[in-house]
Design a protein that fits this description.
- This protein has helices at residues 16-24, 61-71, 78-98, 131-145, 210-217, 248-251, 277-289, 306-309, 311-319, 376-392, 412-425, 432-449, 453-467; strands at 2-12, 30-33, 51-52, 112-113, 123-124, 149-152, 156-163, 168-175, 178-189, 222-223, 228-235, 255-257, 295-297, 329-338, 341-343, 355-357, 362-363, 402-406, 491-492.
- It has 508 residues and is of the alpha/beta class.
- It has three domains: 2-223 and 339-403, FAD/NAD(P)-binding domain (3-Layer(bba) Sandwich); 231-334, Succinate dehydrogenase/fumarate reductase flavoprotein, catalytic domain (Flavocytochrome C3, Chain A, domain 1, Alpha-Beta Complex); 407-501, Methane Monooxygenase Hydroxylase, Chain G, domain 1 (Up-down Bundle).
- The strands form four sheets. Strands 1, 2, 6, 7, 8, 9, 16 and 18 form an eight-stranded mixed beta sheet that branches. A four-stranded mixed beta sheet has the order 17-15-10-19, with helices on one face.
- Helix 11 runs antiparallel to helix 12 and helix 11 (412-425) packs parallel to helix 13 (453-467).
- The longest helix is centred in the N-terminal third of the chain and has 21 residues, at 78-98.
- It is globular and about 65 Å long.
- Bound molecules: succinic acid.
Length: 508
């Protein structure tokens, strides 16, 4: 075991949240650890839609907050939504100042596009579907130029370091098969989502909730783990991860049709193609289950302009033998975003001293049961920066005896078994029988391989989904389709899942 002491902030993860935190922690020294090279292995760089923010004169943070709260189906923390939306325009301008080339309107202001469940066009985008990659290029350049930041690539998170008081003192990372203990004044987890726990995901498949799982095993409070968002229109060309057909296409007028070419969304929601994302995902799931198929027909809305207006979607379609200029795009829901995560306050602090979380692995409460489109890059930038500033104030703690919590790795065949079971039993539509079956799969994998972080996350999702005997937002129970009158968030600790309570704890 190698050892290293960092007198400053340690950030694990190099997506938009992690790098925003690193930049904002200046002048405190920051060490960023990432397994993948910069701009790779993170969902941020794959984001197509853009960043939602009230940038137009006829828009307001209050209107954006109201849409965020409405999409979140009763579980959005209104204080967090207000913070996010008030700081949103400044965050977009700050990224533009770093060089993110947002599309501009004729008057020089930000061009705004419409996405589902927004009451008006509000998404700042880059060349149609290039927002994530372009924003990350600008942020990575700023990070590489920042004298207070050092980046170590090729370092995979394997564990957390904790003292007897529960304070997180740093992490255990693995580089080329060698474990390294890195202690720091403050540790920020920005390890992304859990797409890699599902059979089909729109995110990098290596994102398996390691940060969330390790934090939970260390005793951190986890919020709303049962709420997983499935993007309705992943391009169904047999790829894993599945490329996305951005919701902005529907904002431009693309229609959802069956194999017979007939539109079907009006049967499911008055807003049709622009209904909330969970509604559209379930509708597409139902149409496909019924054998009618689901396709996104953008021939009229985009047609010959695909190569310039939506280059990523165009290229992905062509790679699967579909020309979206002249053919409807086959689509299917795929795991896209985890609303749940390590519970944090508005400055990224978790329930464990010394440990912060930002981005998709965190749960600020801003997304509730269903994230509003294009609020995730925004959350990463706004709360990432807030987290970096707060973590920078942590003093170097006094030396102490440190305990190492290293979870076992899960072999590939076990991951595949888990992914299949998660999609089948904790997917777009769930029920008690399926969730109990999933828990049996998790038990069996844990018995064979030990308590790996992805298994811990899967257990949190499954137990919380089982305990939530209602349907709300991204969590739909076929055996409990009604929505409870009184919304309640889930807050859970790993110790709540100990055998005596397993599958039974009360969500609060
Ligand atoms: C999309 O472009 O459809 C995805 C945007 C998002 O997930 O917010």
């Amino acid at each position: 075991m190698n050892r290293r002491t960092h007198h400053g902030v340690l950030v694990v993860g190099a997506g938009l949240a992690g790098l925003s935190a690193a930049l904002a922690a200046a002048p405190r020294k920051v060490l960023v650890l990432t397994d993948a090279p910069l701009s790779q292995g993170c969902s941020s760089a794959w984001a197509q839609g853009g960043m939602a923010a009230a940038l137009a004169e006829d828009d307001s943070p209050a209107a954006h907050a109201a849409d965020t709260v409405a999409a979140g189906a009763g579980l959005v923390d209104p204080v967090m939504a207000r913070l996010l939306t008030e700081e949103g325009p400044g965050a977009v301008r700050a990224l533009a100042a770093l060089g993110a080339p947002f599309d501009r309107a004729a008057d020089g202001g930000f061009a705004q596009s419409l996405e589902a469940a927004h009451s008006q066009p509000r998404v700042a985008r880059v060349k149609g579907d290039q927002a994530g990659v372009a924003i990350m290029q600008a942020v990575v350049a700023a990070v590489l130029a920042a004298p207070h930041i050092a980046v170590l690539t090729g370092h995979r998170l394997r564990g957390l370091l904790q003292d007897a008081g529960g304070r997180v003192r740093g992490v255990v990372a693995e580089r080329e098969g060698v474990l390294i203990e890195i202690t720091a004044a403050a540790t920020i987890l920005a390890t992304g989502g859990i797409g890699g726990l599902y059979a089909v995901t729109t995110t990098p498949a290596e994102l398996r909730g390691e940060g969330l799982g390790l934090a939970a095993l260390a005793g951190a409070v986890v919020a709303d783990p049962e709420f997983v968002q499935f993007h309705p229109t992943a391009i169904d060309i047999g790829r894993d991860p599945a490329p996305l057909a951005t919701e902005a296409l529907r904002g431009e007028g693309a229609m959802l049709v069956g194999a017979d070419g007939q539109r079907f969304m009006a049967r499911y929601h008055p807003e049709a193609e622009l209904a909330p994302r969970d509604v559209v995902a379930r509708a597409i799931h139902a149409e496909r289950q019924a054998g009618r198929g689901a396709f996104l027909d953008a021939r009229g809305a985009v047609g010959p302009h695909f190569p310039e207006e939506f280059p990523a979607v165009f290229t992905a379609c062509l790679s699967g033998g579909v020309d979206p200029r002249v053919q409807p795009i086959p689509v299917a829901p795929a795991c896209h975003y985890h609303m749940g995560g390590i519970a944090t306050d508005a400055d990224g602090a978790t329930s464990l001293p010394g440990l912060y979380a930002a981005g998709e692995c965190a749960s600020t409460g801003v997304h509730g049961a269903n994230r509003l489109a294009s609020n995730s890059l925004l959350e990463a930038a706004v709360f990432g920066a807030r987290t970096g500033r707060a973590a920078a104030n942590e003093p170097d703690p006094a030396p102490a005896r440190i305990v190492r919590l290293v979870a076992p790795d899960l072999p590939d065949d076990a991951i595949q078994t888990l992914r299949t079971a998660m999609s089948r039993d904790a997917g777009v539509v769930r029920d008690a029988d399926g969730l109990l079956r999933l828990l049996e799969v998790i038990d069996s994998l844990e018995a064979q391989h030990g308590r790996a972080a992805p298994l811990a996350v899967a257990r949190l999702v499954a137990t919380s989904a089982l305990a939530r005997t209602e349907s709300r937002g991204g969590h739909f129970r076929a055996d409990a389709p009604e929505t409870d009158a009184v919304p309640r968030r889930t807050f859970v600790r790993w110790s709540d899942l100990l055998p005596a309570n397993a599958w039974k704890y009360a969500a609060e």
